[in-house]
Design brief:
By secondary structure, the protein is mainly alpha-helical. It has one domain (3-80). The chain is 16% helix and 5% strand. The protein is built from two helices and two strands, in the order E-E-H-H. The protein is globular and about 30 Å long.
């Protein structure tokens, strides 16, 4: 498998779960719908998620989902074991 076949990193939870960035794919780990927002647009409200990426990242750190309404929808702790994750700075 080449590097281009590797999953893309979710801008909210930092897990590599997306097949492509900005394609409105929903991350199963945090339930952020990826509309292309990234760390360079932390304080801009996402039109589809109705929250800023900064707040979604804080929510994920606090309770494991981008938004409180998605807590029951995210992958379980067991389901995310073994997934690749690289933490990025919350600038």
């Amino acid at each position: 498998m080449s590097l281009t076949d590797q999953p893309c990193q979710c801008p909210c939870c930092d897990y590599y779960t997306l097949t492509e960035r900005g394609a409105h794919e929903v991350c199963p780990v945090c339930y952020w719908e990826d509309d292309g927002h990234d760390l360079d647009r932390l304080d801009e409200v996402s039109a589809v998620c109705h929250i800023t990426l900064r707040q979604a990242r804080a929510n994920f750190a606090a309770f494991g989902a981008a938004d409180q309404a998605a807590i029951s929808l995210v992958a379980s702790r067991e389901e995310i074991l073994g997934l690749r994750r690289e933490l990025r700075a919350n600038v």
